[in-house]
## 1
Amino acid sequence: MAQRQFKIISDSSCDMPKAYYEEHDVDIVKLGFFLNGETYSGEDGPEMEEKEFYTILRGGAMPTTYQAPAEVSRAHAEKYLEAGQDVLILGFSSGLSGTCSGMIVAARELAAKYPERKIMVVDSLSASMGEGLLLDYIVKKADSGASLQETYEYAESLKLNICHMFTVDNLFHLKRGGRVSAATAVVGTLLNIKPVLHVDDEGHLINIDKAVGRKKSIRTLVEYMDKVQILGKDDPIFISHGDCEEDANYLKSLVLEKYGADRRIEINCIGPVIGSHSGPGTLALFFIGSKR
């Protein structure tokens, strides 16, 4: 493995296992949430285990989230610039959060303060382990010896090939976020209709289909994947879930059946920041495709 030439920073909305960040030397800017009058995560709030978080949500609690402000992203990046390192930042989709805009503001200020250093920001236009999948490709590129500029250009050329397919078990969390109407949520719940959604080229959540029943909605994710995937033998597939590990493993079995038992598949729980908007029972599939 070649020596990495710069520091990589991302944010906690990419929903990768904490051990991944440590193993691959990625610094993480933390987003946070408010729940029952308390502040969690962020830079200095207490962490909440996913299991506890989703149990509280199933009990009817309604958390709200907050983005990472520009000054927090600035503090993360500046310590590396001060130490003589260049920096690449990968941010949560600007179509869903202002976090990446804050990162861009911070980078502009730091570029003026440290003209001898380079700092570049990639708007992932991705969420959850879709952002995590793009991060994984970036890490591999950087570890191959690519320069900051080469890695930045690689990320920009690849990001709209990072496909997100997902379904939710409960329409009311999408209603609260304005993704479906109240009438759709009520009727859909009564008829056991499960929406199928993706993230578009502007980084927004878009409803593209619906299925009757949970198992059918999970199979539909793989059907959409079949239409656009351009997987090479070494391309991984990521699955994230809102405390529904059994469904995640069922989805994994469908994917392995199609794309080979030796395929690298990563499964991880959706963190509280994304989970506040998607709710318990969300199941998502991420892979490289010809288009989103």
Note: The first strand starts at residue 7 and ends at 11.
## 2
Amino acid sequence: MNIAIVGTGYVGLVSGTCFAEMGINVTCVDIDKDKIECLKNGEIPIYEPGLEEMLLKNVSAGRLKFTTDLKNVLDDVDVVFSAVGTPPDEDGSADLKYVLAVAKTFGQNINKYTIMVTKSTVPVGTAAKVRETINKELAARGVSVDFDVASNPEFLKEGAAIKDFMMPDRVVVGTDSERAKKVMARLYKPFMLSGDRMIFTDIPSAEMIKYAANSMLATRISFMNDIANLCELVGADVNMVRKGIGADTRIGRKFLYAGCGYGGSCFPKDVKALIKTAEKAGYEMQVLKAVEAVNERQKGILFEKLSRHYSGDLAGKTIALWGLSFKPETDDMREAPSLVIIDRLLKAGCIVKVYDPVAMTECKRRIGDVVTYCADMYDAAVEADAVLMLTEWNQFRVPSLSVLKKTMNSLVIIDGRNIYDAEYLAENGFTYYKIG
């Protein structure tokens, strides 16, 4: 089977590489000529464990190709996946201009039955707009060509995307066509050999599933952060509370960890978009509005703890940040708590030293040289008045306290992910703050 994937961002590149790994011929398309040339030369624009090796192998095998010209590949493919960006508009709704641009090119150039599949996260009703755009272009050409539209939302976790795609817990396909259903089932069959985990739905339901899933996970995070903040006020330990409620099988243990707020490319954008979708439908998502508000407040909680420790006198203090990306195993800093904390520290007159295993280049691209970029975690802690742990990379989990005691000005650690042992740190002379 031959397919095309438009958009070589995170979703498109991972999806295309994994399809090629299963023996499917894949052409990845992007309008960014420089990016396509880099990919042809084996240069990967994102950090994702295992992706580079798999991509290079499939390029070498001839199953994975890259181009800037969608129209020239349409006659040779059975399915076109649209994995272009849907950035938030000024009002928080998803901007569909790139999705509809792909649909327009598709309608202007198809000459045989092809399926247009939306893989980008898009609001309910987008598939109808895609279909309308394609039909408009076919009418302008004065031709009649069979095609189908489908929705196939992605559920990839950054840092574990290869595993998520190759061994999915579910594959959701929304379609109103039996013909398209058979093609999509055949396309995903190699990923289903250990059990059929395909879920076929109507198109609006498929479009809603991705938003609902991410919004539920974001809700659990904000709920636990709210509980953690209350625990601090009443003397409870949020880690014990988490274990107690997570043992209830109706609740489960996942996504019950308190922290300094969620970020990334999905949760913040999708929560905003679902709130806006509801508003357009005349409904208010009260729970999600609270989820968003709690998260924005939580991103500043480590700064607040630091400020309280120093009684508001932070001018001239040297603060070390361990971790910049919104989560481990990625260089993604979109909506990362680190950006909020850096901004507040700088406004308070602090000297900010940072270290992250992979996100330093991305941080410099975003904020420039307003912070000091360090060679490693201990370099960042030299003469620091406090260390703020923001991202739970493995290398941060067991720091050498003896090294820190020799180099830090003040032995203060503020843990944004609750990974350290408070008793052990106290025994070694550290002042330790956690979430909840």
Note: Residues 29 and 69 are 7 Å apart (CA to CA).
## 3
Amino acid sequence: MKPFTVHRGLVAPLDRVNVDTDQIIPKQFLKRIEKTGFGQFLFYDWRFEADGKKTGSFVLDEPRYAGVSILIAGKNFGCGSSREHAVWALSDFGFRAVISSSFADIFANNSTKNGFLTVRLTERETAELMRRASQGGYELTIDLQKCEVRDDQGFHAKFPIDEFVRHCLLNGLDDIGLTLQHEAEIAAYEAKHPAPL
């Protein structure tokens, strides 16, 4: 995984609550087995008509939000079914993090396993960032080393994160990466315990 230390990027506001994983990546696009290629289908039902043409009214399709890498969303983001593809779609679209006042546990866990940061702020702080981002061209810095979010206009907020999760994200470690940190010990064990013939 790509380590997450400090990220500065443009912000898009998604002023909706209870955004579930089927809205993030609808079920008909779950046929791929690789983690890439899902970004084009992100929020598909909100971005496209039934005939496949863009609605032109969804926030991510507005020119002022081109190149965004941070999403601010309403509470309970990522609820619904356990769908790792939702994280893959957000990442493939170009997002590195989502800020909200609350996340579904399964979505937050899937995010961690894929090097994608979920930042939990208060509802008041999230609403303020939503307001600032609504103008377009708004940039934020997310500093995982200091566990804080800040901008150049005086906004500053600390966010909580599990220390083990923080360690994994800072060092780009997924479950396989964590295991491979003990490769020497594993090899030594296997040398002492050869496989039966």
Note: The domain at 6-192 is CATH 3.20.19.10 (Aconitase; domain 4).
